[in-house]
Amino acid sequence: MRQLVPTHVPDVDPVTAYSDMPAAVGRPGVRLNMVASLDGATSVGGVSGPLSGPPDRVVYRLLRSLTDVVLVAAGTARTENYKPALVYDEYVEARRARGQSDAPRLAVVSRSLELDWQLPLFQDAVEPTIVITSADAPAAGLAAAREVCDVIAVGEGSVDLPAALSALADRGVRHVLAEGGPSLNGALAEANLIDELCLTISPFLAGGDAKRILSGPDLPGPISMELRSVLEAEGFLLTRYRTVRSAPLT
Fold first, then answer.
1. pTM over 0.85
2. What is the pLDDT of residue 245?
3. Which bin fits 182, alpha (ψ -120 to 50), beta or left (φ > 0)?
């Protein structure tokens, strides 16, 4: 894997490019990781796997190894068959040195709570999977979730994502890795909660009507992002952008 930006390095350790974690005041820093085709598709046949490849998977494992919590929408968790995060042996020592558990926790965002609570995602987690929902979510779903999960219920009518991140901070979470889908990403962007975007540009054309990495209403205005690094391997471009903020977050 070679680094193209900020300087050319013929053979770079990806840890060098990604260990500079984004931070925020009063909440965890949020890093968004997505893969997209050359024509902007985030999935093929409804899943992201066909767009991935060995370089993207290396970065996927690395980003998970650095975070405290992996945040995902319920629809993406179902479609992509999410399970509890794996312990990657090559990263365990570094995680322990940073005071982290051996693997990150999963946090699933769901307003409806129409989830199969018998799935491994909920039943096999070493630390309970976190479910983030609204305070007025269906009572039966809340009761079922609380039997097997750590539940954060914030907002009415929709999930209050800033309040959810504050609740994660109260649990000692410093870093969150968001993995989609596009509607959750759009909601995070609308709330100005994305601190960094790690976007793999896959060397494929996908066509079809797949969503872009963000989906939802127009943002109040374009979010300015600064290019921090670009790595390349096997035709994949692994880019990293940091959000430009005019004032510190509070």
1. yes
2. 87
3. alpha
